[in-house]
Design a protein that fits this description.
single chain; about 180 residues; mainly alpha; globular
Length: about 180
C-alpha cells in the first residue's frame, strides 16, 4: 500500500510544522481587550515556552500593536499572501498584463527570497515615473496603487524575511486562521 500524496510530501520535508490542535479565541471587545486575552491564552497553552514562536498577521496596525505589547520576543511574520497581493497590484498598475506579469514574477521571487529591499527600490523608481499620488487619484489609480504598495512594503520590510522563516520552519501565512474564522 502506498502513502497518500500529502503524507508522502510530509516525509520528504522532515521538521515541517503540522497543526496538532486548533484553539479558537473570540471576543466582541476591541483590540485593547483582545490583546490581553490572546496573550493569556497563549501563556496557558504553554506557547511562550516553545522553541520557535511566530506571530503571523497582515499589515493592520492593530495586529502589530498587540504584537509589540505581548509578543515582541516572537518572530514577526507578515502574512505572505497579503504581501503578494500588494506586489501583484503594483506590478500591474498602469501596465498591460503582458508587461506587468514579468515584473510581478521578478518582484515576488525577490520577496520570497527575503530581498524586499530590491522591490522597494524598483517601486520607488516606478513611483517617480508615475508621479506622486494626490488626493484626486481614485482608488485603483496606478499612482495610488504603487504608493500604497510602497508604503506597505516599507512599513513591514522587517517582517518579510521569508527565506529565513522557511529555514526555521515557521509559518508564512495566516490563511489557516482566516479559514477557521470563516467556518
Amino acid at each position: 500500500q502506498t502513502a497518500a500524496p500529502a503524507e508522502e510530501e510530509r516525509r520528504q520535508r522532515p521538521g515541517r510544522p503540522e497543526i496538532a490542535t486548533r484553539h479558537v479565541l473570540a471576543t466582541r471587545q476591541d483590540v485593547y481587550g483582545f490583546g490581553p486575552l490572546l496573550a493569556a491564552t497563549a501563556c496557558v497553552m504553554g506557547l511562550f515556552g516553545a522553541v520557535r514562536r511566530a506571530f503571523v498577521a497582515d499589515g493592520l496596525a492593530e495586529n502589530w500593536s498587540v504584537y509589540k505589547r505581548y509578543f515582541s520576543r516572537w518572530t514577526a511574520v507578515l502574512d505572505f499572501v497579503h504581501a503578494m497581493t500588494y506586489v501583484y497590484a503594483a506590478a500591474l498598475a498602469g501596465r498591460t498584463f503582458a508587461v506587468g506579469w514579468p515584473v510581478y514574477e521578478r518582484w515576488i521571487r525577490w520577496v520570497w527570497a527575503g530581498q524586499v529591499s530590491q522591490v522597494i527600490q524598483e517601486l520607488t523608481t516606478r513611483q517617480q515615473e508615475l508621479g506622486q499620488a494626490t488626493k484626486e487619484d481614485k482608488e485603483g489609480s496606478p499612482r495610488r496603487v504603487v504608493s500604497e504598495a510602497l508604503t506597505y512594503l516599507s512599513n513591514h520590510q522587517d517582517k518579510m524575511r521569508y527565506d529565513e522563516y522557511r529555514k526555521q520552519g515557521l509559518p508564512l501565512m495566516s490563511s489557516h486562521v482566516e479559514s477557521t474564522v470563516k467556518q
